[in-house]
Amino acid sequence: MISVREALDLVLRDLPALGSEQVPLPCALGRVLAAPTLATRDIPPFRNSAMDGYAVRAVDTATAAAHAAVRLRILEVVGAGALPRQTVGAGTATKIMTGSPMPAGADAVVRIEDTAEHDGSVDVRVAVAAGAHVRHPGEDMRAGETVLTPGRALRPADIGLLASLGAAVVSVRRKPVVAILSTGDELVELGQPLAPGQIVNSNAYTLAAAVEESGGTPRVLGIVRDTVEETRRAFLDAFNSDVVLSTGGVSMGTFDLVRATLAELGVAERFWKVAQKPGKPLAFGRRDAVPVFGLPGNPVSSLVCFYLYVRPALRAMQGLERLHLPTVDATLDETVHTASGLTELVRCILEGEPTAYHVRATGSQSSGVLRSLSLGQGLIIAPPEVTTLERGSRVRVMLLNNDAGAAPPV
Q1: Which pTM value belongs to this model?
Q2: Cα dihedral angle (179, 182, 188, 194), rounded to 10 degrees?
Q3: Architecture in CATH of 327-406
């Protein structure tokens, strides 16, 4: 049995990199950029106004004040998308809108709220410096500049940046296709009646959602019954994917057929069993370049193992640099007893502000109680050499969702 760190190192070692594909810009949100993006033009491409107001010569406003306005003659009105036709000279101004090109001769803009217009003239009530409220060519980006680097998950601002450069399509890393198998004679699909001793195949849907959240494409292959023939057939089909996940069948029961079948099909096992709770009976190996995870069948164990090992692997295959879920420090509001010799991951509720988080367990830590993960925002990481986490002590918490910091203060 190996440690969590050793298991993670083995999972992330020599993972295959996925190729790239071209996608339309509106479909690129969240995708991982595969090639550097160079600015094809200066942004903005011309000198323009940052405000609705009046383009002026700054020197003409030098004496302007609230009690002593400077009056300037309005030459013309220039809207966004229009071009100025007249040059601003001494004693004149051009009425201008946000984004409109600056007229020749003007070197500043006076905000419209600092003026009053009268019969073709404008009273300026504040002095402005040269360059005030003016955007210059290349202020945002300059032609030829590298503005986005590979390995970046594209955010809304990135989509807007690419649109401003006229990029209709984007080169992104291909999404990993992840096959998901659920093993067990006790399983039934959604919508089917439950006979005594049967349960719904919830793991498939849990893992499919987790794969999507991690940037992958789930390929749910359904329920695999506990026979050697069906297990073998299902895995041969699953190997036509980038990653294979199976749940159940990796422990030591009579009908736990997964490990033996994988060995027969040429999967080189890297490890089996990790010193952690939940999720100890975890198997991992490779068949050629395809990573194969034999996850435990208990729903909490399966999802926790996904967070710890599968999610980082999927992110690494997409070229992302930040592989792991974020962690924070928090004060424990209750005493928690943990397993000896195992890294225990305690489902918990996180409250308070980021500078003063407090944390408590969600209740039952049974590996079959999936609601404890639904209720919680994180996992307390209890080291193997500790069996009691005392109330008031500081603990490390792995965050499972992005809104953990939105809870009201305790």
Answers
A1: 0.85
A2: -140
A3: Beta Barrel (2.40)
User: How far apart are alpha carbons 397 and 380 in whole angstroms?
Assistant: 4
Which regions of 161-226 does DSSP assign to beta strands (E)?
169-173, 177-183, 187-188, 199-200, 217-224
Q: CA–CA distance from 93 to each of 121, 134, 137 (Å)?
A: 8, 15, 22
Q: Shortest CA distance to 137 belongs to which of 113, 110, 102? A: 102
CA dihedral sign of residues 346, 351, 352, 353: positive
Q: Confirm if 25 and 167 have CB atoms less than 8 A apart.
A: yes
Q: Write the DSSP assignment of 90-122 as a string of letters.
A: TTEEEEE-TTPBPPTT--EEEEGGGEEEETTEE
Nearest by Cα to 152 from 28, 311, 324, 17:
28
Q: Which two tokens stand for residue 360?
A: 């408590």
CA-angle at 28, arms to 216 and 149, nearest 5°: 95
pLDDT tens for residues 11-68? 999 999 999 999 999 999 999 999 999 999 999 999 999 999 999 999 999 999 999 9
Token couple for 209: 């959602």
Ranges of CATH 3.40.980.10 domains, the chain: 4-16+175-317
Residue-wise pLDDT for 125-174, tens only, equals 999 999 999 999 999 999 999 999 999 999 999 999 999 999 999 999 99
Exposed e or buried b for every residue in 280-312, given b needs 16+ CB within 10 A?
bbbbbbbbeebbbbbbbbbbbbbbbbbbbbbbb
Return the CATH number of the domain spanning residue range 48-135: 2.170.190.11
Q: What is the DSSP letter of 204?
A: H
Burial class from Cβ neighbours inside 10 Å (0-12, 13-18, 19+) for residue 150 reads: middle
20-44+139-173 CATH fold: Molybdopterin biosynthesis moea protein, domain 2 (3.90.105)
For tokens 């002590």, name the residue: 393
**Assign residue 45 a region: left if phi > 0, alpha if psi is -120 to 50, beta otherwise?**
alpha
Backbone angles phi, psi at 158, to 5 degrees: -65, -40
β-sheet bridge partners, residue 295: 247
Distance CA 377, CA 226 (A): 35
CATH superfamily of 4-16+175-317: MoaB/Mog-like domain (3.40.980.10)
